[in-house]
Amino acid sequence: MSELLNLAKKAAVNAGAQIMKFYSADNTALKVCLKDDSSPLTSADLAANEAIIKILSKSGIKICSEESILQESDKDEFWLVDPLDGTKEFLARNGEFCVCIALIKKARPVLGVVFIPVSRELFYADENGAFKEILDAKGESTTKIDLNAKSEKFQNYVFLSRRGDSQVAELIKQNLNLKQISLGSAIKFCRLVEFGGVYLRFAPSYLWDNAAGDALVNFCGGKVFDANSSKEMSYEFADLKSPFFIALSKNTLNLKDKITQLYKQSKI
Q: How crowded is residue 69: how many other Cβ atoms within 10 Å of its Cβ?
């Protein structure tokens, strides 16, 4: 597994480097168009996707990316990739975008990597644990943190989308007296495993948005649940759309029943 994790880390960092080439506000090479679902697609997305596929292809494992969806029927094992998660944040120049890479086996992520290009924070996790590294300009690690060995007191944060979330999430926040932090992209998963709390997503998303973050949470002792079924998230390829979900760090697992109850009550 370590060889595949290292490959995913390399792919994420290389993709981040490609993205940053387009990040300056006066970059005339950046092109933007709209996809069928009206979400933006930029030349940075495509460059990052190409960098990732070039590296992950060495594994011989099929790759499903937001920008190049698999068509084959045999998908028991595959890479699930979002080359630039948070394209709207990228275009807003607020730094809240990232690269997400997960390896899926039997509908579950067995490793996940999230790289935040602006802050050069690299989060990754597999069966051997979950870690954060800060990289220098040359891509060398200057700091490494074992996310399972953090001694700081966890905070009761609720992480919500910067671009609006449902009234249900607001109801849960108020009932449980949680402190709201609004962020873009899968960075919310990263902060969840760093600081503890709850991440609520009751708005549309896709599997590639969440698989890497799910791995981070899972290998840090937390869980990500389907909000409707209360079951662990499944990454079967049959439907690329993600269900609404509740992500809990290990210090908030005891809130699962209460949050689920509030969620279901709000739908009556």
A: 11
pLDDT score of 266: 81
Report the C-alpha gap between 23 and 116 in whole angstroms: 13
The pLDDT of residue 36 is 61
Report residue 27's pLDDT band, with 50, 70 and 90 as the boundaries. Answer: low
Q: Which residue, among 159, 179, 163, has the nearest Cα to 224 in the 3D structure?
A: 159
Residue 75, Cβ density class (10 Å: 0-12 exposed, 13-18 middle, ≥19 buried)? middle
Spatial contact of 213 and 223, defined as CB atoms under 8 Å apart:
no
Task: Identify which of 97, 115, 122, 75 has the alpha carbon closest to the alpha carbon of residue 234.
Answer: 75
Nearest to 5 by CA among 128, 105, 137, 99: 128
The per-residue b/e assignment along 34-43, b for 16 or more CB within 10 angstroms, e otherwise, is eeeeeeebbb
* Residues contacting residue 59 through CB under 8 Å, at least 6 positions apart: 4, 7, 79
Q: What tokens appear for 144 in the block?
A: 């490494």
Place of tokens 């809990």: 248
Q: pTM for the complete prediction?
A: 0.94
Torsions phi, psi for 45 (to 5 deg): -55, -45
> What is the maximum span of the chain, computed from C-alpha positions, in angstroms?
54
Residues in a beta bridge with 68: 65
